Amino acid sequence: SETPSAEAIKNKTVVIKSVQTPVTQVLPINPDLTELLVQLKPSTVDRHRVEGLLAKLTLSKAPLNAAEQYLLLVVQALVKEKLESTAIVNQDINKSNVVELLAQAEKLSGQIAEEQLVQPDFLQLHLILAAHFENQGNYESAYLEKKYYLKKYHIYRKNKRLAMIASLEKSFEMQDKKATNALLKSQNELKFRRVAEVKEEQAIQQYNFTLIIGTAIVFILLFFRQLRVRNKLIRLTLTDALTGVANRNALFESGNSMVKRFSDQPEELSVLLLDLDNFKNINDAYGHNVGDKVLMIVARLVKETMRSRDLFARLGGEEFVALLPYADIHKAKAIAMHINEKIAQFNFSLIMSQRQLTMSIGVATMNNKEMKFDELLHCADLAMYQAKEQGRNSVVCYQHIAESQERRADTNTAPLDSEWEF
Ligand SMILES: Nc1nc2c(ncn2[C@@H]2O[C@H](COP(=O)(O)OP(=O)(O)OP(=O)(O)O)[C@@H](O)[C@H]2O)c(=O)[nH]1
């Protein structure tokens, strides 16, 4: 690269270009110029480097702004000072050139912002002048330049301090804002997490509630099923499996309680003991299946004649019992005869060739309030046997047997069969 001679560098004149820039605006500085100023700071200057940078700047076609022109003049003044002091350059360099150069630079001050002018690189102008005046023995001017330098430097320091405070405040505000933002963010996250937790708790509660309700429903259903099964079992234990009417257990249970109840009240309780005549012959002739069917038909026919308050039960085999509350002997006899008639009139030809069946019925009424149910049933049984003995298909009332026996005891005469039958 072409390196201009020191002479050329020293004599290089600066062409001041008027650049219209606002005075408040800080102008950009070419980095080569800034480095030149740095290079010129130490007491021993790297001449080649300085010359290289100056040449680069001089040959550059880019126009210089007012601040750059100012600094270039300062650089040139410094070069003159430094190179002269190191005795490298020619002795005929006019020292007044420094003053001229710096005077030119000062003329540019009006185009440079005050803020930029107070920067150390720009203020060097006054230091150079002060040193220059001092070397010439012009101490007053040197003093004034130095004083001016210090005044401006003070402003520069003050501005720098204020700028630093402002930047610190700004960074503090930023940090404060960042911390506040972080706090708000973490608070938001906490809120979201809490909301999620609450939702999760609600879901668990709902699940538990559903589980409890479901379990409760299952338990209730099981309880009712158990109740139904229990009731069915109870019903079965009280029902005759073949005919569906009350069985022996139910008969004795109801019979005992009814007798107890009627022992306290004036109304009467009657019992019918019904026995199919020659039922064995049916079994023998047509088989047990037909016999069972007959029993079922008879049970149904008798049940149809019962009042809602009555109880009809199968005592066992072909024997049935009817408990008739609020039925005196006359009513009980009437019911018994109605049953007898109904059975006798029923046509069994659908299940067997024998069309007709008859019944023997014994009737007993609770005539003694001290009577037990077994005794009442026994009376009915005696009456029923009497009916069988009389030739079956008849109704016999125990009260009449008793009366007849009493009479017989009185007259000591044998009773007539017709006396007992109705
Ligand atoms: N098919 C059937 N027969 C039964 C049942 N229980 C008892 N028997 C029969 O009923 C018959 C009763 O016979 P008996 O006690 O001699 O009485 P009967 O033949 O009716 O004669 P009388 O009572 O004197 O008129 C027997 O043959 C028993 O086997 C039953 O549940 N089903």
Which terms summarize this structure?
single chain, 422 residues, alpha+beta, Alpha-Beta Plaits, 5 strands, disordered C terminus, binds guanosine-5'-triphosphate, GGDEF_dom
Please characterize this protein's 3D structure.
Residues 267-400 form the GGDEF domain. Keywords: Membrane, Signal, Transmembrane, Transmembrane helix. The chain crosses the membrane at residues 207-224. The chain is of the alpha+beta class and 422 residues long. It is built from 15 helices and 5 strands. The protein has helices spanning 6-11, 31-39, 47-59, 66-85, 96-107, 114-117, 120-135, 139-238, 248-262, 279-286, 288-305, 329-345, 373-389, 398-411, 417-420; strands at 269-276, 311-316, 319-325, 359-365, 395-397. A 5-stranded mixed β-sheet has the order 2-3-1-4-5, sandwiched between helices. Strand 4, helix 13 and strand 5 form a beta-alpha-beta unit. Residues 242, 275-280, 283, 288, 291-292, 295, 317-318, 388, 392 line the site of guanosine-5'-triphosphate (GTP). Guanosine-5'-triphosphate binds at residues 242, 275-280, 283, 288, 291-292, 295, 317-318, 388, 392.
Brief summary of the model shown:
This protein has 422 residues and is α+β, with helices and mostly antiparallel strands. Helices cover 65% and strands 7% of the residues.
